[in-house]
């Protein structure tokens, strides 16, 4: 699983660690059910067209009974239980990129996430795929703060990208709904 950057043209060896991490092509997709066959076909087409190094997926709507493989990618998933529908996150990361799957959000009430960590030359990049349901906002903030603490953001050698569906309340003059 730990291939070197020389094996992957999308993850070139460079002198600067920041430039190497910055060269990653990362996309976020609200897949709204990867269980459906058409969505998997659409995802495969998108991956072939865009060729991302990492894809952060939210609302996968998968559970432990669903099997999922995609050629050329490792998959890190956070599924809901077998009886609960909705939610779920996943991260697709190219086979040739060394990474570590970290943390779990299984005990959270609001936030679900998958996290991978890429370490290079003393720097750490955390990639987080996040889904938050529409429930209690105070719990959301507490769980988000807990996530930030776990990522040790005070460490100047830790970097992160968090993307997904936060189901945040957005209020402006013309829109008083959720977005």
Architecture overview:
- The protein is of the alpha/beta class and 179 residues long.
- It has one domain (5-165): Deoxyribonuclease I, Chain A (4-Layer Sandwich), CATH 3.60.10.
- The chain is 19% helix and 30% strand.
- The protein contains 3 helices and 8 strands.
- The chain has helices at 17-22, 37-50, 137-150; strands spanning 26-30, 54-58, 73-78, 89-94, 100-102, 111-120, 123-132, 158-165.
- The strands form 2 sheets. Strands 1-2-4-3 form a 4-stranded mixed beta sheet, with no helix packed on it.
- A hairpin with an 8-residue loop joins strand 5 (100-102) and strand 6 (111-120).
- Mean pLDDT is 81; it is low at 1-19.
Rg calc: 17 Å
Uncertain spans = 1-19
Q: What is the count of structural domains?
A: 1
Q: What structural category do the secondary elements indicate? A: alpha/beta
* Strand order, largest beta sheet: 1-2-4-3
Features:
disordered N terminus; 179 residues; alpha/beta; Deoxyribonuclease I, Chain A; 4-stranded mixed β-sheet; globular
Give a brief outline of the structure.
This protein has 179 residues and is α/β, with parallel strands linked by helices. The chain is built from 3 helices and 8 strands; from the N terminus they run αβαββββββαβ.
Describe how the helices and strands are arranged.
Elements: H1 17-22, E1 26-30, H2 37-50, E2 54-58, E3 73-78, E4 89-94, E5 100-102, E6 111-120, E7 123-132, H3 137-150, E8 158-165
């Amino acid at each position: 699983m730990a291939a070197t950057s020389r094996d992957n043209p999308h993850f070139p060896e460079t002198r600067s660690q920041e430039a190497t991490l910055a060269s990653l092509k990362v996309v976020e997709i609200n897949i709204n059910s990867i269980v459906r066959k058409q969505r998997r076909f659409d995802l495969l087409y998108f991956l072939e067209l865009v060729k991302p190094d990492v894809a952060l997926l939210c609302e996968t709507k998968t559970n432990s009974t669903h099997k999922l493989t995609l050629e050329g990618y490792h998959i890190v998933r956070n599924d809901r239980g077998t009886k609960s529908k909705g939610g779920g996150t996943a991260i697709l990361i190219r086979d040739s990129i060394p990474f570590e799957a970290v943390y779990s959000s299984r005990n959270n009430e609001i936030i679900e996430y998958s996290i991978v960590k890429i370490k290079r030359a003393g720097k750490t990049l955390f990639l987080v795929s996040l889904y938050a349901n529409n429930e209690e906002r105070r719990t959301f903030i507490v769980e988000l703060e807990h996530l930030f603490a776990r990522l040790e953001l005070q460490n100047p050698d830790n970097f992160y990208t968090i993307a997904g569906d936060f189901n945040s309340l957005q209020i402006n003059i013309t829109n008083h709904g959720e977005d």
